[in-house]
Amino acid sequence: MTVVMRLSCRTLIATLASTLALALTISRAPDAYATPDTFFTVPQEQIDHADPGDVLRTREIVYHLAGIPTPIRVSQLMYRSIDALGHPVANATSILHPLVQQAHPRAVAYNSIYDSLNPDDSPSRMIAGRISFSGALNAAEAGFLADLVGAGYTVIVSDIEGPHADFGAGPEYAAMTLDGIRAASRTTTTGITASTPVALMGYSGGSIATGWAASLAPTYAPDVNRRLVGATTGGVFVTPRRNLEYVDGSLGWVGVAMMAIKGLTRAYHVDPAEYLNARGRALMTSLSDDAIPDVIYRYPLLTWRDIARPEYASFDKASALVDITDRVDLARQPTPTIPLMVVEGSGGDLTGTNGHKPGIGAGDEVMVTGDVRSLVHRYCATDRQVEMIEIPWASHSVAMQLWAPMAVTWFTARFDGLPAPSTCATTSVGGSSVGS
Fold first, then answer.
1. Which of 274, 293, 327 is the last residue of a domain?
2. DSSP β-bridge partners for residue 75
3. Within this chain, do residues 61 and 195 fall inside the same structural domain, yes or no?
4. Is 10 exposed, middle or buried (0-12, 13-18, 19+ CB in 10 A)?
5. What is the per-residue pLDDT across 225-270, written as a single tens digit (0 to 9) for each?
6. Quick one: which of 9, 62, 91, 130 has the fewest CB in 10 Å?
7. How far is CA 303 from CA 134, 204, 250, 300, in A?
């Protein structure tokens, strides 16, 4: 592949992404691509008779950005996986082909930041040509994806939240990610096979899929785990209850915490109404198909107490909610067996999230830095190769921009067989970020 080809594709994607971002700042347009896409509907009987990762249907399209086709070829697959409760479901994945076919393919499972409660905001729909305000985060990732296919990688982009957009449900994210890799390896259209090496990559919402997939792969998908060269992640969601406390009353991110409650109660079939006052019940109803662009800075200074019934003013009293948030606590899961790189900011104070709450401390405005550090320390205790890069002045979104190029450099070295770096000798438990 020539440098000109790489730059032209990258320039095209960057230009389209900038145009879309400008349009979204001017107005919120009605969603396009309103006609239902029957590709995503698979009979339940067909799903029930398939094994995890089996391909249920395929099609060949091109990558769309804001509804505009690009030169990137895409194989879209529907495949069998399981939801948070273990029920068989059909999910979608999109395999982006490198601009020039590689003699020895390398695959990257890129886990999107699309964070939404609406299945229509999923990467597969946006890649196929749908346009929506709520799906705008997909456009923000287009430059990353263009870089990867331009560098010769095959990129697997699965709908990590599953067919019902179960936002925050880590075990489901893991299954969708791992079965998406299986599916991509079980059809001749993708150019990869069951022996193709794979790296996991994801930030923020994508970190949920990346972290959980790395943790559960040895037991849920040992066939995939053997192929993983490593995982790189950032903006890591570790212990949900502590995240809820951290963003409680913040300027911008409390709406995302409410989205997580909505997503988790939907995934685990729990009705939160008994814990909520009238304002809280109305809020949960209004969030039904929202995404981060809909809620960011929409509920400034909102607290759990504002939406809870008096007897549940402490979240810890809401027993069913405590149960499901504990079920998706990454700190309670097995240690991955693969090398890891983790990037985390701790500059959340600069953007309106208090980093001085006792027992919580600093974060990146939505994730708790001390929790991430403690998770890394636990992994290090099992002699894993883990590199943690903390950026004290960076917010969540700023750290993402720094993480992306570091991530590509890191996993390229893993594909090349170089030893993984480690900061285990200098990573403390929680450290100064915990407490105040």
1. 327
2. 60, 95
3. yes
4. middle
5. 999 999 999 999 999 999 999 999 999 999 999 999 999 999 999 9
6. 62
7. 24, 22, 8, 9
State which residues form the domain around 285. 240-327
For residue 419, count other CB atoms closer than 10 A to its CB. 9
Q: Are residues 182 and 308 in the same domain?
A: no
Indicate if the pLDDT at residue 16 is higher than 50: no
Indicate the helix (H) or strand (E) that contains 262.
helix 254-267
The backbone torsions φ and ψ at residue 196, rounded to the nearest 5 degrees and listed phi first, read: -70, 130
Give the helix ranges, DSSP H, for 131-231.
136-140, 142-150, 170-184, 205-220, 222-225
Report residue 196 as tokens: 């193709």
- Among candidate residues 37, 39, 211, 33, the one with its CA nearest the CA of residue 131: 33
Total domain count for the chain? 3
Q: What is the average pLDDT across 63-67?
A: 91
Strands 88-96 and 107-111, sheet pairing: unpaired
Single out the residue in 208, 234, 260 at which a domain terminates: 234
Instruction: Answer yes or no: do 150 and 296 share one domain.
Output: no
Q: Bridge partners of 62?
A: 73
Q: Where are the beta strands (DSSP E) in 267-366?
A: 340-345
Q: Of 95, 366, 420, 391, which Cα lies nearest the Cα of 255?
A: 366
pTM of the entire structure? 0.92
Give the integer Cα–Cα distance in Å for 400 and 142: 14
CA dist 433 and 435 (Å) reads 6
Q: Which residue type is seen at 329? A: D
Q: Is residue 313 part of a domain?
A: yes
* pLDDT at 139 (0 to 100): 77
Among 85-99, 361-375, 376-390, 416-430, the range scoring the smallest mean pLDDT is: 416-430
Q: Examine the domain organization and report whether 269 and 395 are in the same domain.
A: no
CA distance linking residue 333 with residue 169, whole number of Å: 13
Looking only at the bridges linking them, the beta strands covering 107-111 and 198-203 are parallel
DSSP assignment, residue 38? G
User: For the CA atoms of the chain, what is the radius of gyration?
Assistant: 20
Alpha-helical segments (H) within 268-380: 278-286, 292-295, 304-307, 319-327, 369-380
Distance of CA 388 to the CA centre of its chain: 19
